[in-house]
Specification:
The chain is of the alpha/beta class. The chain has helices at 10-24, 51-54, 70-81, 100-104, 148-153, and strands at 5-9, 31-39, 42-50, 84-91, 114-118, 132-138, 141-144, 154-157.
Length: 161
């Protein structure tokens, strides 16, 4: 069975990468939730909500940690826009491997949720096949969709076609 795809408009994808780089300032992790719509196996990304918009202290430890009070704000944003959380994206200083903390603490502990890890604090060229892409299966189990599989899973398009 083919994997479902997350389709990003080009401006949203590149804007998100630039914003993650800016918010991390090359010194600490930064992250966001990708909100969008679902139609069949295609998930259309519409906007990003950055962790520090939900919790101003999200980056204070150097890694992304959200206080539980951030999530009601996220769910309200989803309800108001008729959107759902498609994925979370966060940066790492080096390679985009899923850390033990990432595995044990999914941002959204719902089967099918996708976590995307961007290397080098989102500095330089961001190639999809060099991202860490992990789908949560529940019970702290993940499917690794990284490497060349990520190119088939994450699409960046000029338009929705």
């Amino acid at each position: 069975m083919a994997e479902s795809k997350i389709v990003f408009p080009r401006a949203l994808w590149y804007g998100c990468m630039a914003e993650l780089k800016r918010r991390g300032r090359g010194r600490h992790e930064s992250g966001c939730f990708v909100l969008g719509t679902v139609g069949g196996r295609r998930k259309r990304a519409v906007r990003c909500v950055y962790y520090d918009e939900l919790d101003p202290a999200a980056y204070s430890s150097g890694v992304c940690i959200l206080d539980g009070n951030a999530f009601p704000k996220l769910w309200e944003t989803c309800r108001a826009g008729g959107l759902t959380v498609l994925a979370d994206i966060h940066t790492h200083p080096g390679e985009p491997y899923q850390s033990d903390a990432d595995r044990r603490n999914p941002m959204v502990a719902r089967s099918g949720h996708v976590a995307i890890i961007v290397p080098r604090f989102a500095d330089g060229s961001i190639w999809r096949h060099r991202l860490g892409v992990y789908r949560y299966e529940g019970d702290h189990r993940w499917t690794n969709l990284s490497g060349w599989r990520a190119r088939g899973y994450i699409k960046v398009r000029w338009s929705w076609k």
